[in-house]
What does this fold into?
Amino acid sequence: MTIIEALQTWIGSFDLLAAEAPLFVDYVDAGTLTQYAIVPLPGPPIVERYLDGSSTRQYAFAIQFAAPTADDQARLANSGFMEFLSDEFERRTADGDLPDLGDRRTAEAVEAVNSGFLAQQGESDSAIYQISCRLEYFQPAMTSDESE
It folds into this structure.
């Protein structure tokens, strides 16, 4: 399983997300309300490399969602959602409820790295919001058998 698949499964299980709303990878349509997306972001993957070849790594990503912006109440709710999502990452990290990355990697933390923002305002009464996040995980040293 890839990291983004693990994140999609894990985040898709959150009660915070609207019921039956799709959680896409690399796609959200501002014209269709109540959609979510996980978007990989650029960044260095290795946080720290150890003498034995193992490493602490990170996977940078953003959560995007399409939401109404017709009035101030809707925009407040959208900002509140990003705050709740950040809190949910913190709570789940503290509880050890993290994405299953398979046999070779172990998730250590998921966190929001900013408070989120309105990323794209269309001509309609909807917009795409984005909050940048990162997954930190441990990866053991690769053996010669695994590299072939």
The chain has one domain: 3-141. The mean pLDDT is 91.
